[in-house]
Amino acid sequence: MFTLPQKEPRAPTTCPGPASTQDLDSNHGDGLERECSRKPDRKLPEFGGVGDPTARVFSHSPYLSSRGSVIKWFWDSAEEGYSTYHMDKYDEAKNPSGIINLGTSENKLCFDLLSRRLSQSDMLRVEPSLLQYPDWRGHLFLREEVARFLSFYCKSPAPLKPENVVVLNGCASLFSALATVLCEVGEAFLIPAPYYGAITQHVYLYGSVRLVCVYLDSEATGLDTRPFQLTVEKLEMALQRANSEGVKVKGLILINPQNPLGDVYSPGELRDYLEFAKRHKLHVMVDEVYMLSVFEESAAYHSVLSLQGLPDPQRTHVMWATSKDFGMSGLRFGTLYTENRDVATAVASLCRYHGLSGLVQHQMAQLLRDRDWINQVYLPENRARLKAAHAYVAGELRALGIPFLSRGAGFFIWVDLRKYLPEATFKEEMLLWRRFLDHKVLLSCGKTFECKEPGWFRLVFSDKAHRLRLGMQRVRRVLEDKPKVREDPAPCGSQDAGGQRR
Fold it and tell me: What is the pLDDT of residue 60?
């Protein structure tokens, strides 16, 4: 079971990881994903997640409750990467030697398209009903539009229902709300690892819910397998281990397309995972926040809502937001679709604390109903820009002889830098991460995502060409100044999107 360090006489070193300051503010919580205060070379835990965060609070403020001290600890643990970057951001005119951020999963490629659309007159409407308390689930006009939007883009076999829609200010709030209403204190969710690390705090800070990692391996075991592949067998083993340790597992978290791997689950895989959950009466929280950011046709994305007959619709809860697919992480819009009316009502009750203003709800409804602009202008151009940016970074990595994994979805490439570590430890991984930061480029290291193998990094490519070029020049400088110090690891089947096993 994952245990956390006890109180120490001095403050720990902080570095990128699941306890992320910016994660508290962003729409989907996807900030710099900093390595937390755990010692980087500690023994790998059997289970990932937060365990009991009170064990790793090194000092309690006399002004805060124990819960407040834990919350403050999550903030404080982010300081090195977060503060360093925000004190020295790259700016082409004002600070050209500042830090290039290739660590935050944000789409910065389509501001021109979005700013024009959001500035049109139909977006600027003010009427009394928008300035008054709404239905806490979200205004009906917005929930109707969300239902139509998801029915179309998720390819649901039957129209989705507005009464099953709840609207909150981002998927971070949705994770928090669902964890709180589905679990008792101390219960847990299964989650395949590596995973988007901020979920750790999303499910803990309100609900005191833990995560049990289903650790995935980088090595492909056969011609019909792929690196970091999730299987039902691995889910069963993780569940059995949790049960043997007295951990009550209440659900499974799936991210599709997956962050940080970019994996896109096939319909068959999705059904297998859902059938596993049904057998064990587990809730399934499916995060589809990158569903429209699949830029390779070969990736063949399928939403869980496209399945003909969900195995257990009362325990299947689907999340989506505009933070990734529409590059609006600052606008704060996320939505839940669930056929379980009890769950929808409980989550809606928490919308009192996580709701959207009426003006933003109007803007979102206008955006989602503008199918012509989305299909003919935004999505084709966004996918073309993502594909071009990905091709550039992938080409740079190939030129450096660096293996990587990329599935043609999302904003990131999962990069294998194990050969640059003198020893296969998370301490060495963090030293390499810090070397990148010293050379003014910010990446996210594998321990941020609870990857069990030191040396993997997530590199975000969804940025403007001039920043990508400069960022990759700095990456190259670090790696060329730090020659390979180990033999290449055993082949893991790392590949770019063109060579994926699917």
Answer: 82
- The residues that bridge with 457 in the sheet, in sequence order, are 415, 445
Residue 41: pLDDT band by 50, 70, 90 thresholds?
A: very low
Helix axes 465-481 and 379-399, enclosed angle (nearest 10) = 20
Could you read off the pLDDT of 166-176 as tens digits, one per residue? 999 999 999 99
Q: What is the mean pLDDT of residues 13-41?
A: 35
Establish whether the linkage from the previous residue to 162 is cis, with ω within 30° of 0: no
Alpha-carbon gap, residue 428 to 444, rounded angstroms: 14
Of 157, 159, 160, 176, which is closest to residue 168 (Cα–Cα)? 176
Q: Which residues of 291-306 are buried (b: 16+ CB within 10 A; e: fewer)?
A: bbbbbbeebebbbbbe
Tens digits of per-residue pLDDT, 294-336? 999 899 999 999 999 999 999 999 999 999 999 999 999 999 9
Instruction: Report the chain's terminal Cα–Cα distance, integer Å.
Output: 34
Beta strands in 323-473 (DSSP E): 334-338, 404-405, 412-416, 441-442, 444-445, 456-460
- The stretches of 101-247 forming alpha helices (DSSP H) are 111-118, 140-153, 171-182, 199-204, 232-244
Distance CA 130, CA 58 (A): 45
Alpha-carbon span 152 to 479, nearest angstrom: 45
Q: What is the pLDDT of residue 79?
A: 61
**Distance, CA of 214 to CA of 254 (rounded, Å):** 11
Task: Please name the residues in contact with 124: beta carbons below 8 A apart, sequence gap of 6 or more.
Answer: none
Report d(CA 462, CA 106) in Å as an integer. 7
Residues 265, 252 contacting (CB under 8 angstroms): no
Q: Are 456 and 415 in contact (CB under 8 A)?
A: yes
pTM, entire model: 0.88
What residues have CB less than 8 Å from 222, skipping those under 6 apart?
none
